[in-house]
Amino acid sequence: MVDIEVEIAHSKIARDPDNLISRGLGSCVVVILYDTKLKIGALSHAVLPHQMIYENQKNDNPARFVDTAIDDMLHKMIAFGCTRRNIEAKIVGGANMFPGVESSIGKDNVLSAREKLKKESIKITGEATSGTVGRSIEFSTKTGLVAVKMMF
Amino acid sequence: MKKIDENLLRKISEAGTNNASKALSAMTGRSVEIKTISTDFVPIEEIPQFYGPEEVVTAVYLPITGDLKGCSLLVFDKDSAVVVADLLMQKAGVTETSIELYGSAMKEIGNIMSGSFLNATADMLDVKLVEGIPTLTTNMMGAIMNQIISEFAQTTKQALAIEIGFTIKDVEITAYLFKLLETGEGGLV
Questions:
Q1: Chain A nearest C-alpha distance from B26 (Å)
Q2: Which CATH number goes with the domain that contains B144?
Q3: Under an 8 A CB cutoff, do A98 and B135 touch?
Q4: What count of other Cβ atoms lies within 10 Å of the Cβ of residue B99?
């Protein structure tokens, strides 16, 4: 059993019995997609809600944005033999570390995840979102469970 | 606007720590020595590695506006933050400190540290920089940087990471001051 770390603006895929881990989540949103029959899971740690075009930036990293990250994970999982019907989602994060400072990025990230998953007809079966506290998470492809660590 | 090179960086750091030492010593009536241990430019996504993404830290965030936009972040690990606040407030005649007082003390320290470096930067680069109100948070380092990366990733690729050593009454504490300033066309960094 291997622990696979997924850093900010990255996305990884794993199968039973490996774990997908992401630490120090703040306003970012982690979306976990899991095929319950094949026990294959994907986790992306996205920073911004929607893909945006900036003049001097090449957006070649789909994992950076919530919506393209979900697209990317779905493509990869399906390529591995997963079926949409068996895929469920869990979302974690979207907090605001600086209450008082005008920032809706956490909320926007969560909203984007909900919208995209609804569009793709993927059910959200669990979530740990918003608030003002950072989180670390560990997802088991063996059990399909997410363990969340918070300190406050 | 001048471009930053190593020489300029050293001058800014020295001026910054000198100003901060004087200000904190004056504020507390106690001898506070602050020195720059190292300065480096790092990609903002690598900042959490200075502490570990899960390490709980106490950070003071200050927005920067003016000719350049950005922010300052002064970070202590959670235990050091309490020690620093305690040491600095003892002289002020406070023997029992409440969490609120820690908060005020930390914000003031953030103000002074950031302000000192900001003034030095503004002087040496010949730009106008204005500091906003400090916000305090005690949270996982990675979580704090998540939000800062979201806000600044489009305009700022690198941050200035200054390792600072505080010596207060024979106690030595290390902290980091991160400064993010948008790079823009002129190429600050």
A1: 29
A2: 3.40.1550.10
A3: yes
A4: 9
